[in-house]
Amino acid sequence: MGIIMSLIRLRRRNDDEEEIEHQLSNQNNNNSINVNVISSPWNSYNNSCSTVTHEKYSAPFVRENMRRRVKLEYAAAQQPTTVGRWIKYYSSCHRILLVGEGDFSFSTCLATAFVWASNMIATSFDSQDFLMKNYRNALSNIAELKNRNCNIMHEIDATTMATHYFLGNMKFDRIIFNFPYAGFYKNLSPLHRQLVSMFMKNAKEMINEDGEIHISHKTNGFHREWNIESVASLHWLRLIEAVDFNHLDYPGYNTKCGFGGDNNFNSYPSKTFRVNMEVV
Length: 280
Ligand SMILES: C[S@@+](CC[C@H](N)C(=O)[O-])C[C@H]1O[C@@H](n2cnc3c(N)ncnc32)[C@H](O)[C@@H]1O
Description:
Shape: globular
Order of helices and strands: HEEHEEEHEHHEEHEHEE
Largest sheet: 7 strands, mixed
CATH class of the largest domain: Alpha Beta
Protein name: 25S rRNA (uridine-N(3))-methyltransferase BMT5-like domain-containing protein
CATH architecture of the largest domain: 3-Layer(aba) Sandwich
Organism: Penstemon smallii
Number of domains: 2
Domain 25S rRNA (uridine-N(3))-methyltransferase BMT5-like: 97-256
Strand content: 15-25%
Helix content: 25-40%
InterPro entries: BMT5-like (IPR019446), SAM-dependent_MTases_sf (IPR029063)
Bound molecules: S-adenosylmethionine
């Protein structure tokens, strides 16, 4: 059985490489290439979930990334899949949804730790165009995520995601929103609390029975007014624990201010609030 699976993987790898070379040699202009990106979240669970997007990248960029992807897929195939790889609270065996990503550096950190990230869907509220204009590392992070078979989606609103035509039908073990902010509205805690509240309401619909919702959040100044635990209780969610957040636990993660520009913010002091469903 193992030998057959290896042969199938090898065949797919060769097909991938042939497809790359074919696409590259068909380009009249060798400076750019159109790619049909087919992503199939949980393709081993549900073959019907696939989306196709048409994207334009430079040919050397595509060539380099596709080669890298083939190598990574091969490396992943060598790993025992039942043990899982861990980084902090996250395992390659969890189905993970990330929302409100900035330059996708947090997702990239998890994906790198997992080697192969077909268990993750990483999303941003911002459009792809916004990301390209504002974050110098967004494109390379997204390419790295795609190489590792992570699914990427843009313009996903955490406050309505449970009704999303595609995400709304899925269940996750971990749903993560790092440093939710409704905009540059200092001292307007109700707006930020509303964002967190609606996120929790939606995320609750999308987690497994023993799934967890994680929010990392600053704990100084006006941030204290948000009172994440009390927001959670409004939705019958229970705080498991609030643990100190240390960005060194997540190599490569850059905390982005969002809403224009490529600025980072200091994430100290912060906590990760882990909540799950209240047992009644
Ligand atoms: C302070 S930034 C944090 C960005 C990123 N999570 C990080 O840790 O670097 C706040 C983010 O919240 C996102 N956001 C705001 N409203 C949102 C919504 N309704 N749904 C999802 N994300 C939202 C913004 O796009 C912005 O990137």
